[in-house]
Design a protein that fits this description.
By secondary structure, this protein is of the alpha+beta class. Helix content is 20%, strand content 29%.
Length: 154
């Protein structure tokens, strides 16, 4: 048995949607903490904010975490009333692919939806993300570590 693999490849395919979302929030918080950031979780999630990440020098980013499994759950969205297109808001998308043993993380700043193009969508009541067969290439510009590093002060 390979000691580096804690869980088998694609193990998240058996999780229900709520368990996947909860796991996604914990993974997101852990990844931010491992990169040296303080991470805070609100007591109540009634405004679409799952995490508050300290970027340094008194700056923070409010993050909505979304977890998806392609091809299932291939669309996720945020109601516009809870997701202003401001530089202090972002979506941390966690993709759990069936062909990998680790999820892929992407940090998409809210202003990216101002001129939404695939895979981002903008409808009357919501902003969304379509996850299709080309998701790896389409989401590459928002790779988590690079985006978080670009936002970090100091």
């Amino acid at each position: 048995m390979d000691g580096s693999r804690v869980l088998p490849q694609g193990h998240w395919q058996n999780c229900d949607k709520q368990a996947l979302g909860a796991a996604g929030e914990l993974i997101a918080a852990a990844q931010c903490a491992l990169l040296g950031h303080q991470v805070y979780r609100p007591v109540a999630d009634d405004r679409g904010i799952d995490l508050l990440i300290d970027l340094g020098a008194g700056r923070h980013i409010e993050v909505q975490v979304k977890a998806v499994r392609p091809p299932q759950g291939s669309y996720t969205f945020m109601p516009k009333k809870h997701f202003p297109l401001e530089p202090y808001r972002a979506v941390l998308l966690i993709v759990f692919p069936p062909d990998a043993d680790q999820p892929s993380l992407f940090l998409i700043p809210a202003p990216a939806w101002a001129n939404a193009s695939s895979p981002l969508t903008s409808y009357k009541e919501e902003y969304g993300i379509n996850i299709n067969a080309k998701w790896r290439d389409q989401l590459a510009p928002w790779e988590f570590r690079a985006q978080l590093a670009a936002l970090t002060v100091g």
